[in-house]
Amino acid sequence: MQNGLYRIREVDMKKYGIALFLLVFLAGGLNAQGPDSTIVFASPNKDAIAPAERDLVNAWGVDILLSNNGFGLAGFYRHEFSREMFGTVTLGIAESKDDNEVEYVTYWGQTIVPGKINRFLLIPLHVGLQYRLFADDITDSFRPYVNAGLGPTLVLSAPFDREYFNSWGYAQSHYTLGGYIGAGAFFGSDMGSLSGINIRYYFIPFSSGITSMMGPIDPTNPDAPREIFKKKDFGGFFITINLGSAF
Helix (H) and strand (E) counts for the chain? Predict the structure, then answer.
């Protein structure tokens, strides 16, 4: 504690990695439980798929986004083109921070970030493809895939010196083109339900930059103008928890 301030550490992605490992391990254990408890992988007979499952070509749901920048939510729609190929549309909203930010909390619970000028919200709209891996070699209760998307992103910047909700009334809009690549898996034998985890890297460049932070005061010349920093990259790694249903 310094001058009544507590420093808040950035979200540690290692914790999310451990959580991801535990979830995958648990899902694998559940997949192994069955009448004979011995067969996990199998080559399914495509002709044996129930007609009701064949009709479940559309799906919708929500994504919970976790990253070093904070948290976010997204809604998604998915359409099945074939047993391996799917099209997706995703609309999300997530926080974004400058990499140089250091947060402190006062004794009274007030958050202070020295030098911060603007806070950011990202609203990406992506159209993408999802390709299922090993569809003929792995049981349907574990469905790994790779995915990618591309589309416009709205970046909102709002003054940090105002109260959080009030500040968005003074927000400025910025637009850029972005995308993502990722890999993940859905778990469970119920094809009408989607639950899984996806790790994505988002590319959200902003070449001209958006004003983010003010440099530190020069102790040798306190009256000198402070350097202004601009944020030019709003991307990064996200761990995405998927929850949805097919219809």
Answer: 3, 13
Distance CA 137, CA 41 (A): 7
d(CA 60, CA 5): 44
- 168: how many CB neighbours lie within 10 A of its CB? 14
Alpha-carbon gap, residue 118 to 171, rounded angstroms: 9
Cα–Cα distance, 42 to 52 (Å, whole number): 21
Dihedral over Cα of 80, 86, 90, 94: its sign: positive
CA distance linking residue 1 with residue 209, whole number of Å: 34
Cβ atoms within 10 Å, residue 126? 23
- What are 107-132's pLDDT values in tens digits? 887 778 889 999 999 999 999 999 99
pLDDT at residue number 227: 87
| CA angle in degrees (0–180, nearest 5) for 194-197-199 | 140
Distance from the Cα of residue 132 to its chain's centroid: 20
Other beta carbons within 10 angstroms of residue 6's beta carbon come to 12
